[in-house]
Structures are given as C-alpha cells and as structure tokens.
Design goal:
This protein is an alpha/beta fold. Helix 1 crosses helix 25. The chain is globular, with a radius of gyration of 30 Å. The structure holds pyridoxal-5'-phosphate.
C-alpha cells in the first residue's frame, strides 16, 4: 500500500496526515463537479472519486473522523449517484479535516439526510449544540483480536460507556493487528490512549512495505509463534514511538504476575478479560486528565478568583495600584485584569514556593520530568542562561576540569568562572564557507580525555558540556558521545544544553538524539547481556593499550556496564520551542548519583533563583508541559513537515534558487560525520529506514527546522538581508552570519508563514533580476564582485588558541585547561589592565615580537553569543583578523573606542612569581 501522501521517505512520513487532507480536497473538487452536472465527464469523475476513496481507505481506518458511519454514507451516495448529497457531505468532511473542526464542532459529524441527524452517539447531549463549553476531544485506539465484522459492535460498546459527567470526549478507532496499531499511532494525531485486547495478529490487513521499513529495526529478528500474545510487544513499541500515550492491556494471562514484570512497564494498567470495560473507560479519562491537569496553573486561576487582601510587597498584585491610578490605567487595560489578580509575592494560598516546593510546583515539576523523560525536573524562571549556571555550580568544584565546546553559550563560560572549574576548550569543526561553526566531533573530545589520562589528570575531569542542537541545527549523536567518553572516564557527567531542542522529545525521530533519549538508551544498554558481551570482546581487544595509542581514537569505545554511571543533565529553554512565556526554562536530570550532589544542587539553585520568581512564567511552564504531552507529537510533526516543505520550495523554485538556498545536511555536515550518506530530506529513493539509520548512527544530524538560508548569492550579507526582511516584508529573523540568516520553524508556524517568506524571496529575486537587466554590464560586474566577496572571500574562523602560561598548571603539558577564574579576577585590578586598539601599530608589533596579548575579558559577538576570547586567553593573529572582519553590531566585552582589554604583561609575570612562591 502507498499511504496517501506516502510514508516512504522522511518527508512523506511527516506529511502522511497532510497528504490525507489533500486527497480529501481532491475528492471534494470532483464531487462538486459531479453535482454541478458533469455530463459526459460524469463517469470519469465518478471513477476518480472512487479511486481516491480507495486510496484513502487504509488511513481512514486509522482515524476516528469521519469514521465508518460517515464513510458508509459517502460510499452509498457515490453508488446511488446522489451527487448533490455526496458533494455536501464530502465538502463538510474535507473542511472539517482541513480546520480540525471535527474536534469541537458537532456539525462536522452530521449530514443532511443522515438517518441520525443529531450525533448523540458521538457527542453527548450537553454538547449537542454550539455555544456550550467544549470538552477536549481525542481518540482511543482499540486493538482487538476480533474479526473485522465485529468492530462496529466494539466501537458501539466503547461509545456506550461515555457519560455526560466525563471531562473529555473520545471516539474509538478499531484495528486488528500489531502493524496496523503502529501505523495508526504514527498517522493519527488525535490518539491519546491505546487499549490492547490481547490475542490479535501481527500482520497488517494491508500490504505495507513502507511501514515494514520503519518497524524492521525494532522488531525481534525471530519469527512469531502463531499463538503468541503480542500485547506487551506492541506496548513496548508504542512506548518507543509515542511515550506520552497511555497504554492499557486486557489479557487472559495471569495479570497479577504480568503487572509486576518488566514486560508490563510501558502499560498503564493491566486488566483481566473484557469484563472491565467501564474500568477501562474510567482509566482512559483519568490518564488523559493526569496529563491535562496543570497543578500550578489550575491553582493560580483559583487563587485569582479569591477576594484576597494583600499586606505584602508587590503593589500590582490584585491590580489596585494600576486600576485605581490616574496615570497608568492603560497598562491594566492592555494586559487585562487576570495578570494582576494572579500575582502575589506570598507563597501562601496554595501558591507553593519555587525555592522550596512541596505542593503544586513540586507536582508540576514531577510531571515535567515525566514529559521530558527524566528522573526529575526543575523549573527555572530566568532562562536557560540561569539553568546552565545552576548545573555548573552544582556539579563543578574549584579546580575540576570541564571539557567544553568553545562555542557554547556564554552562560556556561560565566558559570565556570563562578564555579572555579577549569575549562578545557574543544573546537567545533568550522564551516568557514558560511562563517559559522558546526559542532564538536567525538574524536577531539576523546583525544582530550585520553591526554588527560596520559598526564595523570583524568580524575579531575568532571563534566562534558555540549550544545545540542547548535544554533544552526547540528544535532549530536548523544548516545555514542556518552558511551565513548564513559569508556575513558566512567563517571563523567554530561551537561547537554538543549536550549533550542526541547521540542525534540516529542518527535519519534529526534527523541533518541536528546540528552534524555540518550540516557534512556544507555540505561537499556548497560542492563543488556548482549551489550555486556560486546563490551567484553572489545576489552580483550584493547586491553593494555597506552592512552595515546591511536587505536583508541579509531575504535568506537564501549564502557564497562558494571562501572559506568549514567549522569546526564539537560537544560531546555521551554520558551524557545514550546508555549512558555519568555525565560521559562527547565533542568531535566537523569543522574543515578544525584543523591551525592543533591545538597549542592539545592545550594546552586538558591544561589541563582530570584526570591521573587514570576508566577506567570511558572504557570506557563506547567501549561507548556500539558500541551506537549497532549499535542506535542502533532505539533512537532507538523513543524518538521513545514520545514521540509520550505526547504524544498526554496531549493526547487526556479527563480528563488538562483539567489537563495536552504543549506542541506550535505552542505552543513562534513561527509565523515554522515556515514549513512544522507544528503537531504526526502530525496527520491531515500527511505525512512535510511533516515532512521542516519539518526541512529551518523555522528551528526541536521535538525530540519533550523534552516540556514544562504543569501550571499543575492549579494546580501546576513545583516543586510535580515534588515531587508524586517523593513520591507515584516519578517523577523534572529541569527545571521556573513552570508546567511537562520530561519527557524517552530510549533507556532503555519503554511501561510511559509507563503509569506516565499513571496518575499520571490520579490527580492525579481528585484535583483530587473536591477541586473536594467543596470547592464557595470551593474552585473558590481554584483558579481559583491557575491564573490560574500561567498568566496570569507575569513578563517579562529580556533581557541591557549591559556597564557600564567594560568596553566603545567605549561609544558599537552592539555589545554586553564584557570580562567584567576584571569577573570586579575582583571578586576585596574592596574593589571591595559587597552590596545584593534587597528593599532602596537597590536601588530606585539603579535610579531611579543609580549603576548592576553585577553582580560570575554569578548562575545551577539549573535550568536559565544566567546571568541575568554579571560586569560592568548590572542593570536587569527583572532585579531576575525575581529577586524566581524560584521555584527553588538560585541559584548569590546569597546571599539578603547580597544581590546588586555592583562598587562607585568601583572601576568607577578602572578606567576606569586604562584611559584606558593601564593
Ligand atoms: C545554546 C544556548 N544555550 C542557552 C541559551 C540561553 O537561553 P535563555 O535565552 O533561555 O536564557 C541560548 C540563548 O540563545 C543558547 O543559544
């Protein structure tokens, strides 16, 4: 079967649901033509409608709307030639699918001439008409061993359980095999729960080559016994694809025994036999309610309704200082009264305390931990800048060595100054042609650890800090990175800065590449006998090698599962990719030794958390979690689908592609890190299974939703292009490079956003074309020179040089960690500082003959916001050249009027004297 829209390649996988809506639009168009009186064309149109419906049939089986009842009506009208009735019904269905209005509009479920005009069987009487408070709608997948002829009765039996009292309304969808159940879980965005009645078969009733490709890697290699119960296998597979779904199992097996087994871990409740239908119904509602409930937000709303007199700080609380004012009432009118009613500086009234949570904040955090796949989660109301500092301070002790991507966000570097950790900077691979960095490969990280081992300093290596994904979309192979590091340093802690990547948890493709996805896989591996055997074999092979033996770098190292610890921290800017207010961030933890650092973590949290946290940010973190647990799968699939469409539209548009390009994975990731050979998303012949393998095995993967839009060939540098888009086309972009801007697609984007950008690109391209045509040769030459300057004459990107010897314990050693904190504080002494202008002769002389130029500060161009100089770093010619060519306006830590701020050679010398004297 080819699913409508096709699931063959990765783009098809994302767009299966869109393909379905498109196909319904076609049916609609043909049915309308039939109703309008198609004459001699009627038979052709009728056949087209029949063909489209046949192609839709498998997908319709997996979706609750329009459902078998309306589908039967469609087929009846087609067969009896009731073109008007067909057109009306199809129009209704197509519109409802397009707008998702079947989720809250009873009309979508009815049809004139419908034998049951009022859909009391779909929506309870209280919801029968518009204007009622709507109950959230979802669908429940029922997997049954019964013959297809019994499914209608199964559906009716489930529907009869629904009551007016229910908080939500759901529609059952029945399938009869493991493969169909998985396909339904992939394509049906409305599913919230799966009820499995054991005893069903394995194979789909359809021919499903595409689906088999996806499933193959996850299915046991051995064949199945004809009478084998597949319920727990299905539950395990569902957990992998969509962990947020509640799975229930009804079986004849010994349920008490089964319930306690590992097999049943992914199952929310196990029932015996089918006599428990009402219990199942109540459990389904309770399961969804558990995700729906937002303990902090719910309580805050209740708090806002109470007539509370406040005798504490915060005059805006309850809005009186605003609404009684002669002068600032407009603020109240603009924001609305609830913002102020929901404000307090007290932690009473059930508001709980972020600093010492014991009530609804604690519950909300536990739910966030569940949603993001960690053991625990902590809300942070000052952005991931603060989350990173909290983790750094909690885990790093003065003198500890922290391996860190030099391009990490500045919060990590400042965090290290505060904590006293010594950074061991590792360079990301450069993408010089786009004036940006890629990400840090595994090899230089291993090299650093092995060098530390060779120099007897491995015990001081405490943590590895990496950005995942990077600003420009480079996604690490989290699992392999951690495995290889743990093979050298079994208790290394990992801090994955996933400021941009929190949404990835809700994508079955990307989840494995999140910190928590990686931690879960490590836990599985370390418990697996098969992994142990692989480890033992490798140990025998590598035993006794010197740490600097190149074979250790060449081999994919495996850690000893008996010794390695899983200690993983993830920080997410919830506000960047989910529906939290600005600065809403979380720290998610999967650390089996958390008890050893819990007290320090608390101290660090106290250090950085305001004692007046913003209640609305906390509430929005709670609500963002609710949204992602209930519709994150749909939202992320749609966003990824849009991203892939946008990329294709830009790169295949005959005019736009002359001047602009969405950089592909092939262009953004060097081939050595793409062993799978993946070049782009959805290329012809490239299968979803291959994409899945790329995600499992490639060292880097490019997040589709972070689109580097190359604009150099349009003769525009990143800043010019950004300004042009903002000023002339109302399009906002954040990050730029010399010849690109970054376009991000998020869960809020809709197809018309794509249209707006494409229209702008087309207009700019047309403008260039006519300018070149009108301007003749001189203009064309000028344009070509500008393009060359932007695309070819790009400056080299400076690597991290080294810390000055005054900040290194062993200047002759080969490891590059340094006491950055000492340099940072040395610069507090005005006498230790000096300034040198960037274009001065002095700088040239010192670069040529010394004394060395040593930075007193962090110098951080923004965007992208990582330091090109850190305190104590020796400044090289490459860095100076790069600084001179920098084209961003904001460079934190650099004042062009004064020049570079340096540490005086004399101060450095006396520091070294002091160190030698033991001072
Ligand atoms: C990789 C990375 N980490 C952390 C941050 C800081 O996050 P926030 O803006 O939530 O403080 C940013 C901000 O751009 C970032 O790019």
């Amino acid at each position: 079967m080819a699913i409508a829209g096709g699931v063959g390649g990765v783009s098809g996988f994302f767009s299966a649901s869109q393909g379905r809506a498109d196909r319904w639009r076609l049916v609609n168009r043909h049915a309308k033509a039939l109703a309008a009186g198609a004459g001699s064309q009627a038979e052709t149109l009728r056949r087209q409608v029949a063909d489209e419906l046949a192609a839709l049939a498998p997908l319709e089986d997996f979706c609750g709307y329009p459902g078998p009842r309306l589908m039967t009506l469609v087929h009846e009208r087609l067969q009896t030639g009731d073109w008007t009735g067909l057109a009306r019904l199809v129009q209704r269905i197509s519109a409802a699918l397009h707008a998702n209005s079947y989720r809250d509009d009873p009309e979508a479920w009815t049809s004139e001439g419908d034998p049951e005009p009022h859909l009391s069987d779909v929506l309870p009487p209280t919801l029968g008409g518009k204007g009622h408070a709507r109950k959230p709608y979802f669908e429940v997948l029922v997997v049954t061993p019964g013959e297809r002829s019994t499914w209608a009765a199964t559906r009716d039996a489930v529907r009869r359980l629904r009551r007016d009292l229910d908080q939500f309304i759901y529609e059952p969808v029945v399938v009869g095999s493991l493969e169909d159940a998985l396909l339904a879980a992939i394509v049906n965005y409305d599913l919230q729960a799966v009820v499995i009645f054991d005893g069903f078969g394995f194979a789909s009733q359809y021919d499903l080559p595409d689906l088999r490709q996806i499933l193959a890697p996850h299915l046991p290699a051995e064949g199945f016994e004809a009478d084998q119960d597949l319920g727990t296998l299905l539950a395990g597979l569902l957990r992998r694809y969509r962990p947020e779904l509640d799975v229930y199992l009804s079986t004849d097996r010994d349920v008490a025994h089964l319930a306690g087994s590992d097999e049943a871990a992914p199952i929310r409740r196990v029932f015996h036999g089918i006599e428990e239908l009402l219990e199942i119904h109540l459990s389904i509602l309770e399961g969804v309610a558990d995700r729906y409930t937002t303990p902090y937000f719910d309580n805050l709303q209740k708090y806002a309704q109470r007539p509370i007199g406040t005798f504490h700080a915060l005059p805006v609380a309850r809005g009186k200082s605003i609404f009684h004012s002669n002068w600032i009432r407009d603020m109240g009118e603009f924001y609305g009264v609830n913002l102020f009613l929901a404000e307090s500086s007290a932690t009473t009234g059930g508001l709980d305390s972020l600093l010492e949570p014991t009530g609804n904040i604690k519950v909300a955090q536990d739910k966030a931990a569940r949603a993001f796949g960690g053991d625990r989660a902590f809300f942070v109301t000052n952005g991931t800048s603060t989350s990173n500092k909290i983790v750094q301070q909690a885990l790093v002790r003065p003198g500890d060595i922290v391996l860190i991507d030099r391009d990490c966000h500045k919060s990590h570097h400042y965090g290290l100054v505060l904590a006293g950790g010594q950074p061991y900077y590792i360079d990301a691979y450069p993408l010089t042609q786009y004036s940006m960095y890629g990400s840090v490969a595994i090899r230089p990280i291993k090299q650093a650890l092995l060098k530390l081992k060779a120099e007897g300093k491995l015990d001081r290596a405490r943590m590895l800090v990496l950005t995942n994904c990077t600003f420009d979309g480079h996604v690490a192979n989290v699992q392999r990175t951690m495995l290889e590091c743990l093979a050298i340093k079994p208790d290394l802690i990992f801090l994955w800065d996933e400021a941009w990547f929190g949404y990835a948890r809700f994508s079955p493709l990307l989840r494995r590449r999140t910190a928590m996805g990686g931690a879960a896989r490590l836990r599985e591996l370390f418990a697996s006998p098969d992994y142990r055997r692989r480890y033992e074999a490798q140990r025998a092979e590598l035993a006794g090698l010197d740490p600097l033996d190149p074979r250790l770098l060449e081999t994919e190292l495996l850690p000893d599962p008996a010794v390695a610890r899983v200690r993983v921290y993830e920080t997410d800017s919830v506000h960047k990719s989910m529906s939290s207010l600005r600065q809403g961030s979380i720290i998610v933890v999967a650390d089996q030794d958390f008890h050893t650092v819990e007290a320090a973590f608390k101290e660090a949290y106290f250090t950085h958390t305001s004692t007046s946290p913003n209640l609305q940010i906390i509430a929005s973190l709670d609500v963002a979690r609710r949204q992602m647990e209930l519709e994150g799968y749909e939202l992320v699939q749609r966003a990824l689908q849009l991203s892939i469409e946008l990329r294709a539209e830009i790169n295949h548009h005959p005019l736009i592609s002359k001047y602009f390009r969405a950089a592909t994975p092939e262009e953004m990731i060097p081939a050595e890190y793409r062993k799978s050979g993946m070049r782009d998303y959805g290329l012809p012949g490239w299968t979803l299974a291959q994409t899945s393998r790329a995600l499992d095995e490639d060292e880097f993967f490019l997040a589709p939703s972070r689109i580097t839009l190359l604009c150099g060939r349009a003769g525009l540098d990143g800043s010019q292009f950004k300004a042009l888009l903002a000023d002339s086309y109302d399009i906002q972009i954040n990050k730029t490079s010399r010849n690109s801007v970054l376009v991000q697609i998020n869960i809020n984007n809709v197809p018309s956003d794509l249209a707006q950008l494409i229209k702008a690109l087309a207009a700019i391209s047309r403008g260039i074309e006519s300018r070149l045509a009108d301007g003749g040769e001189p203009e064309q030459e000028r344009f070509a020179a500008r393009v060359k300057a932007l695309v070819e004459d790009v400056p080299d990107l400076p690597d991290f040089s080294r810390f000055h010897d005054a900040f290194r314990e062993n200047p002759r050693g080969s490891t590059n960690e340094g006491n950055m904190r000492a340099a940072y504080y040395l610069a507090y002494d005005a006498a230790a500082r000096e300034y040198v202008k960037l274009d001065s002769e002095e700088i040239e002389a010192r670069l040529a003959n010394g004394p060395e130029l040593v930075s007193a500060k962090f110098v951080i161009p923004y965007p992208p916001g990582f330091p090109i100089m850190v305190p104590g770093q020796v400044i090289t010619r490459e860095t100076v050249t790069f600084m001179r060519k920098l084209d961003v306006k904001e460079i934190h830590g650099y004042d062009a009027a004064k020049g570079l701020e340096l540490l005086r050679p004399s101060a450095l010398a006396s520091l070294r004297e002091g160190a030698r004297g033991g001072g």
